[in-house]
Amino acid sequence: MKTTYKVNVWAIKTLKPTADGKKRPKPYGVRWVTAGEEHSEWYKTIKLADSRRSELLQAAKRGEAFDIATGLPESEWPQREPRSLLKLAQEFIDEEWNESAPNTRKRYVDTLAVAVAAFVKRDGSVPDGRKLRRVLTTHLLPTNRRDRQLTDDEARTAEWVVSASRPVSDLAKKVEIGNVLRALGRNLNGTAAASWTTRTRRGVLHHLMEFAIDVEELDANPVTRSKVATHVGSSEVDPRVVLNPKQAPQVLAAVTYAGRREYLYGFFGAMYYAGLRPCEVNRIRKADLRLPDEGQVDEWGEIILEKSASRSNARYTDSGETWEERNLKRRAQGAVRRVPIPPQLVDILRWHLRTFGTTEDGRLFRGSVSGGPVNATVYTDAWDKARKIGLSPEQYDSPLAADPYDLRHAAVSTWLAAGVPAAEVAERAGHTVDVLLKVYAKCLDGQRALSNSKITSMLDPE
Description:
Blueprint: E1 3-4, E2 7-9, E3 13-14, E4 28-34, E5 37-43, H1 46-61, E6 66-67, H2 85-97, H3 102-118, H4 129-140, H5 152-164, H6 174-184, H7 195-214, H8 222-225, H9 247-254, H10 265-273, H11 278-281, E7 289-290, E8 301-305, E9 307-311, E10 323-327, E11 337-341, H12 343-356, H13 376-390, H14 393-396, H15 406-417, H16 422-429, H17 433-439, H18 448-459
Antiparallel strand pairs: 1-6, 2-4, 3-4, 4-5, 7-8, 8-11, 9-10
Protein name: Integrase
Organism: Kutzneria kofuensis
GO molecular function: DNA binding
């Protein structure tokens, strides 16, 4: 809380009746300034307004400090309503909403719905858990959904949450923050949440508690001090999922045999040879390509990435559509990322353009039905079919490239194994160096023997 002794209390202001002659319900205003911040309170009678103005003048005369933000004198601070976790969550989401991608907004809302539902007063009848979660995620928490018309049942649930949400200050107690953290580790049906989900939720709660410190509801972050453990897990890439340079072209070629999904050959090729995210591949336009002339063989090209195309629930997008173009991850508005592409990908993209052309707006890849970006369910199904064709039965049953995103992992791991400096790899992949070394610095499948041979030669120069 920032305080000041620089206080000016102005004369009472009286509002005139409205244009149609109606008297205003609270026409008498008490106005004052704390260190340049203006405040006002309005009253029905001039007597009430004069009494309030007198209280403020007396507080200033007694030498009380005034809170700059609220304008309240020190003697009135304990009278302020404590901020509930629901209120804090709403303020935090409002603060982050405009600068966040749709899926980030969804992550904030989903996580804090769990936290708010777990941190309520248990006296009286508690609404059904699913109703509670639905009202929080579709009305109370999303910035753009709080004016949604509710059913009578939803309205009752919303009123209950508002009144039952407990003060944020209670989370300073170890037992209370521990209970909330344990709730984040559970699904709605009571089963344990996936380790990645639990870690992500804990991260969101950590950010919320930092916000609580900023608005002076807490002195320290209770999540940091809590000993409640998340599920054991790692953000590092499992080396078992990474295709080596011999396996990758084999599985990519199998895409053309995966049942009318050959148009995804270039999609997956861009993920492997350029290390792109699916949302980035979905936004590649012909104008973004810098390909060498047809006669030039074994020449590198370049993709200039400017935007990505992300899919999210429509209620989290600004446009109300399920697909929305966004800035590149960790890039400012208008920033681009230049990604060199090897001759293998140059040939694949040329073949794609000759065979499938582009959309009206110049995009290379689109869904076969809607013409919009390719849905994750479509390319995931196609990739599964390609793995079944391109890998042995033992490899197919293993974690090797089980997810299309593992193509990106293979790309970055290949660059690192080739000796490309970490800073250059990070630039191509759109990562920071710290994240790159933590997540992607793994051995390729089949590279360990080569590494062992190099070490042996160093240990035994004879």
